Amino acid sequence: MNKRIDEQKLIIILRGIAKEKLPKIVKALYDGGARIIEVTFDQKDENTLADTAEKIRLMKKTVGEDLLVGAGTVLTLPQVEAARAAGAEFIISPSTDVSVIKRTKELGMLSIPGAFTPTEIMTAYNAGADYVKLFPITKEDIGYLKNISAPISHVPFICTGGVNPDTIELFLNNGAAALGTGASILKKELIEKEDYAEITRLTRLHFDKIKEAMSNI
């Protein structure tokens, strides 16, 4: 699974997508080249365990085993366990919680916790994280990404803030091992209009920019 992230370099983030629109959106992303998709828990929703698990199963059913599916915004052990039971293969969190990391690894999934300071990053990595989501970080913080990547060069970072076709090369050239985005592809107006062709085009554009960036590194 690490190899797939290293090669593809892009995780598509699904946040707040209605279940009835999920199959067509996932198919549009897949047609654009996406093979790694994360669906997030909604911490304000009391039914988020069941709803997110259902979305994970639905995504797998829509495309099949060729799609690497994970859960995002994971904050608790029950969320880790519900995601795994539904078929999730990786767990992404906005924070570093050692118990979440360890349970994720016990269940055979990739662990991608969020961290920002050197202490948080090393706590996450030493607890077993496969990648560390540098969070929060945007293109305005690129100097921090570059500086932190020098002394902690053995830790692979995933960056998710402000990733779009114009910033992909900037992030990859300054220490990011992979990227995550949702807003630059799954635009609200496209979802409302059900413009799946444009979602596919935008997905393909992101991968074209990744290929171009990697050829320049």
Q: Work out the strand percent.
A: 15-25%
Q: What's the count of strands?
A: 9
Low-confidence stretches: none
What strand order characterises the main sheet? 5-4-3-2-1-9-8-7-6
Using only CA atoms, what is the Rg?
Answer: 16 Å
- Kindly report how far apart the N and C termini lie: 23 Å
* H and E order: HEHEHEHEHEEHEHEHEHH
Reported for the largest beta sheet, the result is: 9 strands, parallel
Helix content: 40-55%
SS element count, helices: 10
Mean pLDDT: 95
What structural class do helix, strand and pairing data support?
Answer: alpha/beta
So what's the overall shape?
globular
Account of the 3D structure:
- With 217 residues, the chain is of the alpha/beta class.
- It contains 10 helices and 9 strands.
- Strand 6 (114-115), helix 6 (118-126) and strand 7 form a beta-alpha-beta unit.
- Helix 2 packs across helix 3, helix 2 (22-31) packs parallel to helix 10 (196-216) and helix 3 (48-63) runs parallel beside helix 4.
- The chain is globular, with a radius of gyration of 16 Å.
- The mean pLDDT is 95.
What keyword list fits this structure?
9 strands; 9-stranded parallel β-sheet; 10 helices; alpha/beta; globular; 217 residues
